[in-house]
Amino acid sequence: MRNKVTIVGAGNVGASCAQQLAQRGYADIVLVDIIEGMPQGKALDLLESGPVIGYDARLVGTNDYKETANSDIVVITSGVPRKPGMSRDDLVLTNMEIVKGVTEQVARFSPNCIIIMVANPLDAMCQLALHVSGFPRNRVFGMSGILDTARFRTFLAQELDVSVEDVSAYVLGGHGDTMIPVTRLTTVGGIPITELLPPETIDRIVERTVKGGGEIVALLKSGSAFYAPSAAVAQMVDSIIRDRKRILPVAAYLQGEYGIDGVYVGVPAKLGSKGIEQIIEIKLTAEEQAALKHSADAVLELVQIMKL
Prior knowledge:
This protein has two domains: 3-142, NAD(P)-binding Rossmann-like Domain (Rossmann fold, 3-Layer(aba) Sandwich), CATH 3.40.50.720; 145-306, L-2-Hydroxyisocaproate Dehydrogenase, Chain A, domain 2, CATH 3.90.110. Helices cover 42% and strands 21% of the residues. The protein has ten helices and 14 strands. Strands 3-2-1-4-5-6 form a six-stranded parallel β-sheet, sandwiched between helices. The chain has a three-stranded antiparallel β-sheet with strand order 7-10-11, covered by helices on one side. A three-stranded antiparallel β-sheet has the order 12-13-14. The termini are far apart.
């Protein structure tokens, strides 16, 4: 029997995520959205791709959360996307009401599921979902660090003209302007990037990584990134459903780890069938620790706006 994954929001991120997961073939997928016809049409289109690509996953589009009942994983992509000049933080009050309503329905129909948050501002929306659902922290977390790290790895691979597979990196902190690409631990083929690139080039790539989402928003003029975010979600779902126990950077609720308590922030975590099975604590320098604390404080400011 295949697992069941619900994706809330049938826009670009949600539909791309459904496509990536359908092609894996290990889960049936429910695509839910408030817009009548859109999730049904996209699900049917994806279903009809099965004979060509070679997957048997069952896809259902719906406007009714009853169809999502007993999902193993629920991915929440719904919300208003960023517009040019808009920060993720500007979205907090608008998307707060959307994510609150979605989480209530998810918790009602799938009380044992794992929630993966994608809606922005991501870390704050994770905190909202944790509060509304009442789930334990290991079953509510966010896709952020994988995407930010993927951007960092991409830019480094481009600069050095090497395979992205040989670039190893972590981006910690909140999913926004305070994220922290940890250059000290970044390697290419096992070689520290500080031995391969001058400091000014590394700084330029770090800056581009931090502003990576905004760069795409500015280019598209309408909407935001969706291919890379959906790929990041699929990697998380892979690790959970297949119990792969991958160590991946995710937005996790910290309770004393890294000296931070009561807020979501991006850190490495082991993802398995139970969700977050372990938060991995890297020994940070004083400067890195201060940057992570600053990032956590920025998330906390958004949480306080929501008055949770």
